[in-house]
Design a protein that fits this description.
Elements: H1 3-15, H2 27-36, H3 42-55, H4 59-64, H5 67-74, H6 81-96, H7 105-108, H8 116-127, H9 136-146, H10 155-167, H11 175-188, H12 207-211, E1 228-237, E2 243-247, E3 258-259, E4 262-263, H13 269-277, E5 281-283, E6 290-293, E7 298-308, E8 320-323, H14 325-330, H15 335-341
Parallel strand pairs: 1-7
Antiparallel strand pairs: 1-4, 2-3, 2-8, 5-7, 6-7
Length: about 350
């Protein structure tokens, strides 16, 4: 057992987090938490996690649920491909593994939405499997401790970090504590800015601390301009005050969610409604633009109210549906629409 692992396991016992709701040896709960925690803070995830478990307490209930129900509970958490893959993976566990979550990291990794690090984390927490993880927190800890230069997203640097992570593993019995320690250390001590080196259990031989390079390591991702896009979202209401929502394609941005019909600009909005939706509308004054930021681009949204001319003959179908405000807020909708519908 490496001295690095010994120190982390001891530190986790005394200083790590022990009260998180998913800290149980249940692969379903561990898997759900690992997916929710991808690119999302713990404080945000806890409420979503508890609501999700209340509705889908096990893999079988998740696999049997309509995707719309899954997306509705995920609404507001973002990165919706995670929810779609979670649903597909639950169905795969039922179909391919007899409803029993697989134990081996290689088998876990075959499930949709699960990569090498996530598979290892699930196996380590649930089955004490000796498998290295390498999420963003762990990359930062190892890059600083070993003094590894280069952006961790580059394949050669990532391979070095994987090799190092594999070499530091403890015995199987300590894998849950060691895996949690790496996550906790990166989240609470070896933070991106102003790391608390005096509280770190491996500070004595950390190359970044010894050389004063904590702010330089890991090497940042090379910066590039963030693309910007624009869209017009149509707020079309019928004579009952209901809002027309359109189901987005199953993949891509907000895949599978109910959202507002969109058009490229307001000039062609009325024609778009007539040609694409079969509705005659009159545009009302546009609402102020606002910006929604994604990981890889910024989207400027122009909310465009439109009054329906006459009673609608458009009946609900698989891709277009009239929603009351409360009904829409309870459905799987993207964050910008939730913002538009929120009171005040």
């Amino acid at each position: 057992m490496s001295a690095f692992a010994t120190r982390l396991v001891g530190w986790q016992r005394d200083h790590g987090r022990h009260d998180l709701p998913w800290q149980v040896a249940d692969p379903y709960r561990v898997w759900l938490s690992e997916i929710m925690l991808q690119q999302t803070q713990v404080t945000t995830v806890i409420d979503y996690y508890q609501r999700f478990l209340a509705r889908f307490p096990d893999i079988a209930s998740l696999a049997a649920a309509p995707l719309d129900d899954v997306l509705a509970l995920w609404s507001g958490l973002g990165y919706y491909s995670r929810a779609r893959n979670l649903h597909k993976a639950a169905q795969a566990v039922m179909a391919d593994f007899g409803g029993v979550f697989p134990h081996a990291p290689a088998e876990i990794e075959t499930l949709p939405g699960i990569g090498r690090s996530t598979a290892a984390a699930i196996a380590a927490f649930s089955f004490s499997t000796r498998a290295a993880i390498l999420d963003g927190n762990v990359k930062r800890v190892l890059a600083r401790w070993a003094g590894i230069d280069g952006f961790p997203g580059q394949k050669a640097i990532e391979n070095r970090l994987w090799a190092l992570a594999d070499s530091l593993l403890p015995v199987a019995a300590d894998m849950p504590a060691y895996t949690q320690a790496q996550m906790d250390l990166g989240a609470t001590v070896c933070t991106p800015k102003k790391p608390a080196c005096l509280a770190c259990p491996v500070a004595s031989d950390c190359i970044a601390r010894i050389t004063g390079r904590q702010a330089e390591l890991p090497t940042p991702k090379p910066k590039k301009a963030v693309p910007e896009r624009r869209t017009v979202m149509l707020l079309i209401r019928d004579d009952k005050g209901r809002l027309l929502l359109q189901k987005r394609p199953p993949t891509g941005i907000w895949g599978g969610l109910w959202s507002l019909p969109e058009t490229a600009d307001t000039l062609g909005a009325e024609r778009h409604c007539a040609d694409a939706l079969g509705l005659a509308v009159a545009l009302e004054p546009a609402q102020p633009d606002f910006v929604h930021v994604f990981t890889h681009f910024k989207l400027t949204i122009t909310p465009q109210p439109a009054a329906l001319l006459g009673a609608t003959a458009l009946a609900d179908n698989d891709t277009l549906r009239w929603f009351g405000r409360d009904e829409a807020l309870a459905a799987g909708i993207p964050t910008p629409l939730r913002r538009l519908l929120a009171p005040g």
